[in-house]
Write a structure and sequence with these properties.
Region (Disordered): 1-20
Number of strands: 5
Protein name: COASY isoform 11
Strand order of the largest sheet: 1-2-4
Radius of gyration: 21 Å
Organism: Pan troglodytes (Chimpanzee)
Order of helices and strands: EHHEEHEE
Length: 128
């Protein structure tokens, strides 16, 4: 955003800064961010039907890059800081990723990137 240049004003004149661009419809006074992190903790089977509305909500808050971290089944309850854990790359996970990218295609302004740091193939899991 460019900073308006101040010009000398006649004595007694009031300087009026340019008004900010209008907020997107339905946002009210919510801020819009350049990038955001969406952590999905709900089991994938119950997330799939709600995926379109989740992406639409995220697209209202983020206007450039949305990073998505899959952590199905993570508990956010309790006093401990939640820790990321490996997620096995099952057909369900791969299918969900495909659906996520397909659903994100509707929001052309949004660059959706799924973080794969915790997605593991079966061979990369350490034995118990």
């Amino acid at each position: 955003m460019r900073t308006p240049r101040l010009r000398a004003q006649p004595r007694g004149a009031v300087y009026q800064a340019p008004s900010p661009p209008p907020a997107p419809v339905g946002l009210g006074s919510m801020a819009v961010f350049r990038s955001g992190l969406l952590v999905l903790t709900t089991p994938l089977a119950s997330l799939a039907p709600r995926l379109a509305s989740i992406l639409t909500s995220a697209a209202r808050l983020v206007n450039h890059t949305l990073y998505v971290h899959l952590q199905p089944g993570m508990s956010l309850e309790g006093p401990a800081q939640p820790q990321s854990s490996p997620v096995q790359a099952t057909f369900e996970v791969l299918d969900f990723i495909t659906h996520l990218y397909a659903g994100a295609d509707v929001h052309r302004h949004l660059d959706v990137r799924i973080l794969l740091t915790n997605i593991r193939t079966k061979s990369t899991f350490l034995p118990p």
